[in-house]
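In this section we turn from sequence analysis to structure. A common task in structural bioinformatics is to predict how a protein folds when a small molecule is present, because the ligand can shape the pocket around it. The inputs are simple: the amino acid sequence and a SMILES string for the ligand, here flavin-adenine dinucleotide. Study the lines below before reading on.
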Amino acid sequence: MSSTGHPKNVIVIGSGLGGLSAAISLAQEGYAVSIHEKNPKIGGKLNVLKAQGYSFDLGPSILTLPHIFERLFERSGKTMSDYIPIRPLRPHWRNFFEDGKVVDLYPEPDLMAAEARKVGEDPANVERFLKYSADLYDLVNAGYFEQGLDSAGEFRSFYGLGKFLKFDLFRTMHGGVARHLKTRHMRDIFDYFIKYVGSSAHHSPAFMNCMPTIQYRYDLWYVDGGLYHIALGLKRLMDELGITVHLDSEVTEVRKQGGRVTGLVANGEFHPADIIVSNMEVIPAYEKLLAEDDAFMKTLEKYEPSCSGLVLELGLDCKYPQLAHHNFFYSDHQKEHFHTVFRKRELPPDPTIYLVAASRTDPTVAPEGCDCLKILPHIPHIDDEHPLTRQDYMALKERVLDKLERMGLKDLRKHVVFEHCWTPLDIREQYYSNKGSIYGVVSDRFKNLAFKAPKQSVKYPNLFFVGGSVNPGGGMPMVVLCGQNVARKIVAWDR
Ligand SMILES: Cc1cc2nc3c(=O)[nH]c(=O)nc-3n(C[C@H](O)[C@H](O)[C@H](O)COP(=O)(O)OP(=O)(O)OC[C@H]3O[C@@H](n4cnc5c(N)ncnc54)[C@H](O)[C@@H]3O)c2cc1C
């Protein structure tokens, strides 16, 4: 409550999942919440494209950790399944290799053991690796995820030195994988769990091996009709909570006075606020909305963006029955692939490709007898000093199509009846993400030890951040958790 007896007024900049989660969590705490979103619809990167009878998830396509989303509904006495219909998928992923081997991922130990044997991996190695992953998950989840830890001090006091050593700090993620798994195929697969945060298994810390547990313990989910139904379900909940959403309302300035923020300017109009939560990423927000000086911006350099992506949607006039719902086509040189994207910052000659064929399990997303494909190789974020052209990106697209045709999608090009493609330049333009990043801040052992920026501004105490650029980072469940944690932080600071 403000001194006038009215609820305090919070404005959220941006309606990505982090912004929506923060808005809902703060409204549930009694704040008067409104959102300004520059685009004509909510959801941010959780986005959908419908054309010619096809429906594509333009952003996320894998839902994990649904219990984190469930909490948003439970706190209003509701049940998520009444708003968002979800179901688990089998197999989780299908993995295709250039040598013709195909391996599926299942959470059931007997099915997974059979898949491991196909490439000569002893199933006991997979079991040991998954136990190692589960231990890391429990460790990371207890503090970093659930307590919303932000600073080295908070980390020290929660974990203490003893537990800190259990983070396997002296290895890379790949080092942790290679210690347990012996075959190149299994190593490539478990290294690629780093895709969830758009980083490199050879440059991120070993505790990122917590990620397979997210799938193996809590399953992998699909939202019937496509993932945008998450945004639609959250919108219904927001309407019930009385949250105001201003669409087509770009925030161009955050005003400040006496070390605090006082409000913001959207579409040329000033809106006063007691508290501001920015779902615009930390670096673009400080630079563009708060006009901070170079010295301050330099302190944020360690929060380097994650990778970007070439996001290609294809509507086909046929089906490729060999595809599962989620598929990965591996680079024959995965270590080089990571090095090219994350160190040399070049477009990879032989990328690992993620391909979603949601039409495999959801008949509503494509005409009968047809597949709709979303294809996503991870590629470097934008380098404004040495920018790539659309032509460069289209040359990569041709390499991607060559690889898919070579690896079994025969005559793919001939079956395309609808095509849509976004490059990193389009992604930046759409979401104002830092250098076209698709997961926020990169997880890198040497740059930031996988820490992202803190949720409370170090300059203005009534300014907070939410989303992939702050702890715990990118991916849908993490930004939703971040929204809940930032609300808790605001309440603790405010009362
Ligand atoms: C192609 C792709 C595939 C992905 N796959 C997966 C997946 O399978 N599973 C998964 O969990 N995650 C996936 N992700 C990552 C996931 O989508 C993101 O981590 C998450 O959705 C980001 O949420 P966010 O809260 O950080 O905000 P964002 O989605 O980045 O939204 C920020 C919002 O703020 C708005 N905004 C910015 N500046 C302003 C301003 N000045 N004024 C007004 N509005 C503004 C933007 O328009 C946007 O709506 C994927 C992402 C992409 C792009």
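The radius of gyration is 22 Å. As an exercise, try to locate the residues that line the flavin-adenine dinucleotide site and compare them with your own expectations.
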